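TL;DR need structure tokens for one chain.
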Amino acid sequence: MISKIAERKAYAERRIKEVSLDLTGLNVFTEWADGEHSYVPMIISLAGAKEIYCYSKALGSEEVKRIQSINQYLPSFSIYPRLTIGETYIEQCDIVMNMGKVRPINKEMIDMMKPTAVIPMMMMPSERRVEDVDFDACEKRGVLPVFLDEKAYGILDSIGLKVLKLLFEAGLSGWHEKYLLISSGEIGFRILRLLKLYSEVILPYDNMIIKDRNYDAIIFADYYNKYKIFNYDLPDNVRIINIAGEFDYEGYKNKGLRIYPDIKPRPGHSTVGGEYLSFKILFDIIILSLKAAEVAVRARLAGKSIAETVAIVLEESPGIF
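>> reply
TL;DR here they are.
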């Protein structure tokens, strides 16, 4: 049977080849993380990067020793990631990844970057969070944040599948059930399109009074509102599907309502990533984002202006702005 590492390496190699990702000669600043995110350095290495710097604000000396086991992912690679607890290596890098352990990417970090550096955002422009990246500092420095066209590559559709998987975990089926969906925009449309195939889905409008409380589940999947979006009293038997959007988490927990996953939500953040469904979704987000960054940084290194680079990225890569 193929090992977990071999399976992920084979998939990464295939997708890198399919999108023609080539990081030859480029230095990449990324995170050190656990779980499926620990394979990100492997992906960067397979794409041929010159140097890889793995950073985490939380790393300590003991943690650095422990995570030397990263070597298991790179047994035959010529490029070995450098683990660092300092930000100074950022000034050598062409690509600085918008990863959880690197954020917030603040003015001090951006001012250390090359003026030709690129930040692959790994999200849609509508999901940008100013608390994670100082976009004003990027503009002043000439650093280019590049977003990912998740809609064009099917990644956005996976959100509906995440909701369905959580419904299964909650003991529901998606079959002839009734849901209240708190969502909006492209994400809300995709969830609605999937769930309404076999169930009734109610989309509340602004300030509506929800009189009918006979729902099998309330689905919170609002990535765009940064305020508490729901404070209604709910019956004891309803399940809470908690994808994104702030609600009365403590109140519902104290009432004994079942929340899936049982994680306190943060405005603008998802409680589950693509890897919740499969490592393949996470890998695709990483590889496609790196492809957009590669196209952008090579244009900048060739002397192209920001405007010229934007046009090239839109024409030749999965990147959008």
